Automatic annotation (TrEMBL):
UniProt source species: Mesorhizobium sangaii
Pathway(s): Glycan biosynthesis; glycogen biosynthesis
UniProt gene name: glgB
Domain Glycosyl hydrolase family 13 catalytic as annotated: residue spans: 262-629
Keyword check for Transferase: yes
Protein name per its UniProtKB record: 1,4-alpha-glucan branching enzyme GlgB
One term under GO cellular component: cytosol
Xref: InterPro entries: A-amylase/branching_C (IPR006048), Branching_enzy (IPR037439), GH (IPR017853), GH13_cat_dom (IPR006047), GlgB (IPR006407), GlgB_N (IPR054169), GlgB_N_E_set_prok (IPR044143), Glyco_hydro_13_N (IPR004193)
Catalytic residues of the enzyme: D419, E472
Keywords (A to Z) from UniProt: Carbohydrate metabolism, Glycogen biosynthesis, Glycogen metabolism, Glycosyltransferase, Transferase
Amino acid sequence: MKKPRATAATSGPDGLAAASDVAAIVAGTHGDPFAILGVHEVGKSLFARCFVPHAEFVTAYTLTGNIAGELSRRDDGGFFEGKLSIRKRQPLRYHARNAGGDWWLTDPYSFGPVLGPMDDYYIAEGSHLRLFDKIGAHVIEHEGATGVHFAVWAPNARRVSVVGDFNEWDGRRHSMRDRRDTGIWEVFIPDIGAGRPYKYEIIGPDGVRLPLKADPFAFKSELRPATASVTAVPPAHPWGDEAHRSYWRKADHRREAISIYEVHAGSWQLRDDGTFLSWDELADRLIPYAVETGFTHIEFMPISEHPYDPSWGYQTTGLYAPSARFGDPDGFARFVDGAHRAGVGVILDWVPAHFPVDEHGLVHFDGTALYEHADPRKGFHPDWNTAIYNFGRREVVSFLVNNALFWAEKYHVDGLRVDAVASMLYLDYSRKQGEWIPNEKGGRENLEAVTFLQKMNKEVYGHHPGVMTIAEESTSWPKVSAPVHEGGLGFGFKWNMGFMHDTLEYFSKEPIFRKHHHNDLTFGLTYAFSENFVLPLSHDEVVHGKGTLLGKMAGDDWQKFATLRAYYAFMWGYPGKKLLFMGQEFAQRREWSEARALDWNLLEFRPHRGVWQTVRDLNYLYRSRPALHGRDCEPEGFSWLIVDDSQNSVFAWLRSAPGGSPVAVICNFTPVPRDNYRVPLPTAGNWREIINTDASEYGGSGKGNGGMVEARAEGGGISATMLLPPLSTIMLELVAD
């Protein structure tokens, strides 16, 4: 890069800085320290000026070790200046001395800027898609020196400084250069590398010093309760997951088996002393477990840095930093690579809807409402006491879009599940009349958020076609998972919250009353193909006094287990991708808490082991039978066989897809076995029972049909007469001739 010309500074004919400039540098109030400090032309000579607190003497050297001049102390606070013997502007090192000793430092103000005019252009336009390579803290070589380049967006600040243990947290020492066209401040600090805690000291537009701010683009953070950012090099992991990524790049996710295991990394398991597992320990335990249980993907609740454990990660202060709770960022890269090598994808919960108001975070970042809306009717979230991103500001949109691209590129994640989308889409979300501002058309839709989500999805799918995005969206907003060019939001999938609500409501009813609620299970099929759905039985249903899935099932203990197994098979046979929260695969009895590990000892007991075996076998069937996944999002893959037998609480349907035999799913949701029950089937012949949730190996009563039923043509149709076990779901597959 072409070096900038030496700056002509305000000085007298003798080359000395004006007294007012010296005083402002020492006080830390100078608006443009690069105009004073560093190397400057005065006439035909070069002068150096530096601010080195504690020094009594300073000698300037070139980076190659040649003496460049003795500097005189102009101010006892540590301001030095002097004429140089060198003829060409270049970076300098200083040898500082006092009565207690001596030390060396390289002058950050003797270096030119790192960012260039094209960076300014794309940043200002909001179209820069590699901000994470430019903003934040980057260990680099620059003009012959190694150090860290810091850059941060704070357009309304009077001064921004980098502070850390390398400068005694003194904001006067490393004031940054203001790139006025973009509001970006930058400085290259030589002689430091990775692993150094730092923050930004910001003087707001009113001259008030703000609480120290963590870096919004920090790639690493301190372990809570400490809140500083930490300089880090990008993950240098040697990836070995090309086969996995290549497969998903070419795949149509809607027609693939996707069975997601939702995990809170801080409480899946813990060490014996109660501390968190590291990413490497999680890899050794969680990945083999997910493989054995048959899940295709692990979805982590947010792992970006967050200060408060009970927020579960949903109130993040460091969107670019994997949480220090589980080790360094490279550990997370190793986890993802290990999962991919084992054939398991990794999805991250991602939270662009809001952020916490912790003082070290984004709130009033430069002394103004920068990332958030100034008006609380748009900028404050009443449910969570958090700030809402200003989606109408291109720099904020760019910050968030770049973050989505960052996780896909740097950590090879397979998907982003976007949290709280409904709260983003509606201006009146959780607000009373008068507490929200209509959009420009007078409506309640947040048009700026819609544009942001569309842009995010376009960029993610455009740059990383193997990555999927999933919306947690609880309303009937149209076309959430339709392409942007068709007027949709552009997500790959949407959580089917109605399925979760209706089915749990149904199974909480005593069996004798279920006939009156038959519609709870059939209604979902009227809209099952309006979106590309994921069926979630998520953490939201097993916290805050809601109990567990096992506890929600009606009946005595045997009936609860039987109903839960039948429910899972109903869900795995239902159109849509699957998601199960950790612990529910073995019927966790205690409500989940982020403060303790799951109750793994339950797997020693037959009923719990039976539920786990049911889930494992369902995952195997779902993945191995195209009929159960190949048309999850298309109505051609589903047809009712029995839809209106409310008296017996029996349901039956057919799943089909090219490349595999059709599968009939038959459910009996009462504890009464139904003998000689006639089920219509599309084809005469033998139909093999591929799962029966009442099997004794699962903890059931062992009733069934000997593994096979025969469908015959009679009475103008084809049907099979069979035994429907109590509180069960069975699946039958047509046996090829």
